[in-house]
Specification:
By secondary structure, the protein is mainly beta. It contains two helices and seven strands. The chain has a domain of about 100 residues. The strands form two sheets. It has a four-stranded antiparallel β-sheet with strand order 1-2-3-7, with no helix packed on it. The protein has a three-stranded antiparallel β-sheet with strand order 4-5-6, with no helix packed on it. β1 and β2 form a beta hairpin. The longest helix has 4 residues.
Length: about 150
Amino acid sequence: MISLDHYVGREVTAVEEAEEGGWQIVLIGDVRIICFDAQYDMPNAESLVGMKMTQTIFSRDETRLWFGTDDNPQATTMFLPPMDYGIADPARDDIPDQPVRPQAGPIVPTAEETRPDHPSERIADGPEEAPPEQEAPEEGVAEDQDV
């Protein structure tokens, strides 16, 4: 699975309009981080070009990227929409030529999200029918002996 974390430490070479719409940050190796959401302003190229991506934070509300130098690793912070960005990396064989939206995979709810609030509403699933009754062994005969 592709993730922005794979590109921490790479230097920014350009900030420009993206062919797919929106804008993109280009990292060394022609890796493109593309923002498709027009509500997010394109960052200033002068403030990012030459800096390295130093940290990523993912949350339900935002994807946060830090760019900086060895002396100041958090010099610039920028945000991406958590569900509307993509990554294109020509060096990876496992992804297609077009941008991959890594966050668009299936979302599996946690146990806390699916559990009812009140304990009386928590009903365990069980067998549909009662198990078959077993015959009691004859007196004086071991269970594993043939009669």
